[in-house]
Structures are given as structure tokens and as C-alpha cells.
Sequence to fold (227 residues):
Amino acid sequence: MIRIWDNYLDERDKKVYQGAGLGKPTGIGKKPALVIVDVQYGFTGDSPENIEESIRKYPTSCGESSWAAIEHIKLLLHAARKAELPIFFTIIEGSKSSSNDRVAIKGNIFDHPALLEGEKGTQVVEELKPQYGEIVISKKKPSAFFGTPLVSYLTAQQVDTVIVTGCTTSGCVRASVIDAFSNNYRVVVPEECVFDRGIASHAINLFDMQQKYADVVPVDELIKELY
Fold:
């Protein structure tokens, strides 16, 4: 099977990772949960427009690639609801009460008016609107786990596997994957359900997570496993 990262690896890389025994699948556990990381207008823009246009309104937008991923996340979300999985959303919000240049990334990008608490840029996109009983967690750092009650919620529902979707692949998704792995959860990343503003960064981070921390799988294969 051709993978998205294949064009970024040379033969030496492939031999080294294969020879080391990395990249072996872990599999899904008995009680998975779905975590949708930061699929909010600030990262998607208002519509599937070119990223160069989208960042004029939302400097953190990933542009059209986010809307391609949203279509796949919608299918997975529907399957997760049908399978009665615990479902969690995270959002990043800049603070209106204090200036903080350490929200999510270095610099003060989250001081942008569209990305402050309660503004549209912090809202989960309508296509994935949370339903009653699905928990939305506000965070200030990359990981869905850091400084949030997510582990407590997962423990209460005896979750053993975290399915991580959303954005960005190289940032908040990767941070959440590593923290999930560090908390001894099995981790699954459906490839089509994550996105980034950088093409190469997206591909290489998927490769690295597949080798070390998560099973990066096609979303249609994952959906089949949920039923």
C-alpha cells in the first residue's frame, strides 16, 4: 500500500526503520474513544478556500486541506456515534482576560481578535457540531491532555484506545498522540482525518507517529472495525 509519506523517504530511511522493527501495529482495544482536536473555524476558515486567502481572516487556518479532512471526520463521527463511543472535542481559545503569548505556540498569534474566547474562530465547525453528551474541552496548550480533565473522563468510561483526529498533524495532533501514548492508551490516527498547513510536515509527522506512537490507518478500515 502506498503511504502519504513514501515520497519523503529515501531507501536508507526505509531500511533503517524496517530493520529496527519500528512501525508494527498495536491494534484497537476493547473500549475506544474519539477525540477531535481543534477542528474550529480558526483552523479551517469559514469555507474551503485557498489557504493564502483563508489566513487573511484566520492566521492559523489550514485552508482547503481542512475541509477535505472534515468530510472524512464526519463519516468517522457518524460511525462513532452509531457505535456509542465516548466523543470529545477540543478547542484552543486565546484569553480575553490576560495577555499570554504562550497559548498553543510561541508568539502571540492567539491574541488575534478572531481567536479569543467565545469568538467564531474558537467554535467547532457546524459540520461536526457536538451533540448532547459529547464533551468540548477548552485548552491553552498543544496537547488535548495537558492541563485538561481528559484523562479523568477517559478513566471514568474505561477507555483503552484513543482515536485522534483533527489538526494540526505536526502540532496539536502529534502532541495529543504522544500524551495518549504516554498515558498507556493505544492510539489510532485515521490518516484522512488529520490535516496541517504544511504538506511535507503533515506527511513526515504521520510517518513518525506510525513508527513510534500510533497506528496510522485508512479511515475506512477503522470504521469497519467499529461495527
Remarks:
- The helical segments are 11-20, 41-44, 51-54, 64-82, 150-156, 169-182, 199-212, 219-226.
